[in-house]
Specification:
The protein is an all-alpha fold and 639 residues long. The chain contains 26 helices and four strands. A hairpin with a 2-residue loop joins strand 2 and strand 3.
């Protein structure tokens, strides 16, 4: 290894460890774009540092990598079918960042595999230690070990689900290095961190991640068995088994899961006609609803999909009434809790098939390549990383970890490790060298992602400031912040609400003109947002557009039966126009009585704990308004 390569690895190691610490320190913030911006800027800097190496940059010369390129390109084409292009570009940029990170890590491995593994080990140990330390401190402060209390253990990830999958990934990298480590202290540290991570996942009752550990353990056992038995595979067998696995996985995802989601999943409790408690319904029951509606979306966008990143835009159109948290409360689902189905709905069948062919080919070709390695230490490292990747794929059936910046960084490292085994030969790695032109393309793309990240950060920062101003009833400041937040690349806030809707609400509160235009822009960004549909209908009615207003109220009612304001507004219009039969139909459809009121007030402690007094007041107002509408209708009918 030449002198300049040593500089490259020293700087790369410092950047990785410093980046891991920075991510952990920033995890507790509400500014998710900060981590994205750091990743994009750090990757741009890393490519600059790597350019000082005398060795030219390269990409894996393998059909699997070419499939990866094809899948990333195909996903990019789905931007053309997106309703919300800004959100689509942001989500797609995460795929691009993962791709470029994989190339960066691959080139580091290409220069010196031992130094690269040592660098990854240092980064994962530091990060994992911080995760475990903070998580254990939070665990000691929980009241009990119920699901409600355990969800407060988030490490620095802001979410228990993301915490546990990161524990799985990082502990896998730590365990993989055990065979490489020369010092017993390093081996003991790796095993200890892995064991503590596994125990913590079990304590936190993260079933999806426990299943990931089980799948990884099973796959690892198979790999050790194949290697021990020295099983050899012909080229023809490899092709046929890969094709068979691909067909089985595709049939399961497109046909089997359609049948599976039709199965009735029993609820863990059903104490009233309303599914009142967030944990009274099993998480699997909720996921089945999400998956079923995702298949409905897929049927409507079969070829091209609805556009990458646009699942959250289109999902409310398929109804929220079966989802208690979204129907009665301000919970907005942004992903279907299944990365594969999300990709199918957003990008269509063709792109989905290409992507799944890449994933299956990567797993199978890595499996065959690693199992034939004679060096036991090298085999163990590759086998553990591949098994962990399989575990991550299993987790992706129940969650959407790739949405998190810290996760897709380590996922890219997994890609790079597996590509090294696929392209390994007697002289190093079979790589395709990049000329100056192709070196400029990643830099240009990264400059654009940094540009996007800046606008996303500005958007999230200003929306957070606006939310704080609203709590203090400072609508003027809120309006200023929201106007600064809105941009082509930031149209939906981190709560899943259109930014222009916030602007329209602020103008309404201040008595300023122009709120109708803002609601219309918000409608273009998110056509099925129940809050915006109601306010847009109100604004249209105030401008004399009765029929348009009625259409918006009816759509809002179709989206959510638990969101009562469009019911109230439409009932008011019909009563005012003396259309009593229509008014009666609307009023009878309102799901509010004493029992529902009591249940909602009880659940307010979970869903609106920080704003519980105002929430209880709102629920009481909704109840009394419903009762008043019934009395008014009866009076007009002479009953």
């Amino acid at each position: 290894m030449v002198k300049n390569d040593k500089i490259v690895f020293s700087l790369a190691g410092i950047l990785l460890i410093a980046g891991c610490l920075a991510f952990n320190l920033l995890q507790g913030t509400t500014f998710f774009a900060v981590r994205y911006l750091i990743a994009a800027a750090g990757l741009l800097l890393s490519f600059g540092v790597m350019s000082f190496s005398p060795r030219p940059a390269g990409i894996p010369k393998s059909s699997v990598f070419y499939l990866y390129i094809a899948s990333v390109a195909a996903i990019g084409l789905s931007v053309l079918s997106a309703v919300n292009v800004g959100e689509s570009l942001f989500v797609y940029s995460k795929y691009v960042l993962t791709f470029l990170l994989a190339i960066l890590f691959y080139n580091l491995f290409n220069r010196d595999v031992k130094a690269a593994r040592k660098t990854l080990y240092a980064g994962c140990v530091v990060t994992l230690a911080v995760y475990l330390l903070v998580s254990c401190m939070q665990l000691f402060h929980v009241e009990d070990f119920s699901f409600d209390s355990l969800y407060k253990v988030t490490g620095l990830s802001g979410n228990k689900t993301f915490l546990t999958i990161m524990l799985f990934v990082l502990s896998s990298f730590a365990l993989a290095y055990v065979a490489e480590a020369k010092r017993k202290s390093c081996k003991l540290l790796s095993v200890t961190l892995f064991a503590v991570s596994l125990v913590l996942v079990v304590i936190l009752k993260s079933r999806a991640v426990m299943l990931s550990y089980a799948a990884a353990a099973l796959f690892l056992t198979i790999m050790f068995f194949v290697r021990k038995r020295k099983v050899s595979f012909s080229r023809k067998f490899k092709v046929w088994i890969t094709a068979a696995v691909f067909v089985v996985v595709i049939l399961f995802l497109t046909v089997g899961m359609r049948l599976l989601v039709k199965v009735d999943v029993p609820k863990t409790a059903d104490e009233s006609t309303v599914e009142y408690a967030y944990y009274s319904t099993s998480s699997l029951y909720e996921r089945f609803i999400l998956w079923n509606k995702t298949f409905e979306m897929t049927d409507d966008h079969t070829v091209c999909g609805c556009g990458i990143g646009n699942w959250q835009v289109m999902f409310p159109d398929y109804g929220l009434s079966e989802l208690y948290s979204a129907n009665y409360w301000n919970i907005n689902f942004t992903r279907p809790h299944n990365e594969f189905l999300g990709l199918l709905a957003e990008c269509g069948h063709v792109t989905f098939f290409v992507y799944m062919l890449f994933v299956i080919s990567l797993i199978m070709k890595s499996f065959f390549a690693i199992c034939k390695i004679s060096d036991r230490r090298d085999f163990v490292y590759g086998a553990v990383i591949l098994s962990a990747f399989v575990g991550c794929c299993v987790n992706s059936f129940f969650s959407f970890p790739s949405d998190k910046t810290e996760y897709f960084i380590w996922k890219a490292a997994m890609y790079a490790v597996l590509f090294t085994y696929i392209t390994k030969n007697e002289n190093g790695y079979n790589s395709l060298k990049l000329n100056v032109l192709w070196k400029c393309v990643p830099v240009a793309v990264l400059v654009f992602t940094v540009f996007v990240g800046f606008f996303r950060y500005e958007g999230e920062r200003n929306v957070a400031a606006a939310a704080n101003a609203i709590r203090n009833n400072d609508w003027k400041t809120a309006l200023q912040c929201c106007e600064k937040a809105a941009s082509v690349f930031y149209t939906i806030d981190y709560n899943g609400l259109p930014v222009n809707w916030h602007i329209g609400k602020a103008k309404e509160q201040l008595g300023l003109p122009g709120s109708l235009a803002d609601y219309r822009r918000a409608h273009d960004d998110m056509p099925f947002c129940k809050q915006n549909l109601n306010d847009l209908g109100t604004a249209e009615y105030a401008c004399g557009n009765r029929d348009v207003a009625v259409a918006h109220f009816e759509k809002a009612m179709q989206v959510s039966s638990g969101f009562l304001y469009p019911y109230f507004n439409l009932a008011y219009i019909y009563l005012k126009d003396n259309e009593l039969d229509k008014a009666a139909a609307v009023i009878s459809a309102i799901k509010m009585d004493e029992n529902v009121r009591d249940v909602l007030i009880k659940d307010a402690r979970f869903f609106e704990n920080e704003n519980i007094e105002n929430t209880v007041e709102r629920i009481e107002d909704e109840y009394h308004t419903t009762m008043k509408l019934h009395r008014t209708l009866n009076h007009l009918r002479g009953e």
